[in-house]
Amino acid sequence: MKIDIIIAYVQRYEFGHEYDFVPPITGIHLAAITPAEHTVAVYHQQVDRINTQTDADLIAISFFSGFAMAAYALAVEFRKRGKTVVAGGPHVTYCQAEALEYFDAIVTGEAESAWLQLLKDAAVGQLKQVYTGGPCDMKDLPTPRYDLLPNKFFIRKVIQATRGCPFSCSFCTVPSLNPGFRLRPVKDVLRDAGYDQFDYWWQRKVVWFWDDNLTIKRPYIRELLQGMIPLKKWWLTQASMDIAKDPELLDLMKASGCIGVFLGIESFGIDSLADANKRQNKIANYSAAVKAIRRRGIAVMAGFIAGFDHDDEQSIVHMADQLMEIGIDVPFLSIMTPFRGTPIYHTLRQEGRIMDDRNWNYYNGYNVAFTPKKIDADQLLQAHRTLWKKSFSPWYAGKRILRGLFTLRRGAFLLSLFMNSFYSYKRVRKNYPIDMTQRHNIVKAVEPVPRFEHGVLA
Predict the structure, then answer these.
(1) Which tens digit of pLDDT belongs to each residue from 48-97?
(2) What order of strands is seen across the sheet that includes strand 2-7?
(3) What is the DSSP letter of 308?
(4) DSSP state of 143
(5) Residue 264 CB partners (closer than 8 Å, separation 6+)
(6) Which residue among 112, 205, 238, 322 has its CA within the 20 to 30 Å range from the CA of 134?
């Protein structure tokens, strides 16, 4: 069969992205585990124009909730043309009945254990409606199909070494979507990290670990980082703040080429951290933790979420100053989003606070899909936008860049320079996150193609 794998996307900024930084790993990973007798192509709607006139036999679309409207629109167009369309990803896992209105089949959970059977069934016209993927053991996974990525992505070498996370943050689907904590063999990870068939030096140099919490298993990460040293790469990942208490690990991270670590700090409020179920984060330790990491010349990226029940306008906007004070190099600022499959969704649903009149376009991390407690939805949105504009003003971005010039290693400084310039340029040209209440036409709801018209079911 000829297979097109599509990663759906909905524009999140008024003018789109000036540069597209890094791709998700899903498409190129799924292509890699596809048997050689099939011809496969990967398309990212973020950067590619999707050809609905394709001659592919099977269309596979992966997406999370914020991009569901685009995925459904694509499915309708393909099915009108008689194509067989299947889907997977977090959204279909938690919204199966809805997804089945648009797709001939869906894969829930992790795809590796179900994908090959789906392909066999599709080849003989005997697709089941639901394929349930179990936890992958992470062994013998092939190198992602980097050759199928367009050069439009600045960084192309994305790798996953571990899967799962031991924490249970209230806003996160990982514990249920990727249960347990599993490790890929170190030799397989190093093989992928050493892949160098890219056009530009930075694409060969930079390795982005697409992991939820890479450093949890200390013996494993130490073995992996020892193996990374001779490769002489620059690498980034996501980790827990507890790495700051492990100076030997931090030294090894530096020696192996780490240039950036993303920390899920989320909030400066004790009550808000309790709302997030992130009691492992201690506000009093933030500054010391950031300093310990930056002392090795490693840039600290950090996520902050606005909209927990104890947040108000003042506390949200004040985060702009607080993240500067503790030394964050690159902040990522989002609005709390109650994705299905998360504890916070169930809480808000029970309390009648999910805004059912707002479609999936509001589930993109930059819009409000629930009724806040201390302020109203519009106040939350405007407080977040004020936080965003202040944090990425030329003054604040310039201060972070200048601070990094004297404290960060070369690769980490370039990361800070690029990312702060990227967001500050958006700020200057007013390329703000889209307010979906003002853009109902960005991706409209579409009616599914009835199965009997499509000929899937009798």
Answers:
(1) 999 999 999 999 999 999 999 999 999 999 999 999 999 999 999 999 99
(2) 39-44, 2-7, 58-62, 84-88, 105-109, 130-133
(3) -
(4) P
(5) 169, 238, 240, 278, 281, 302, 303
(6) 238
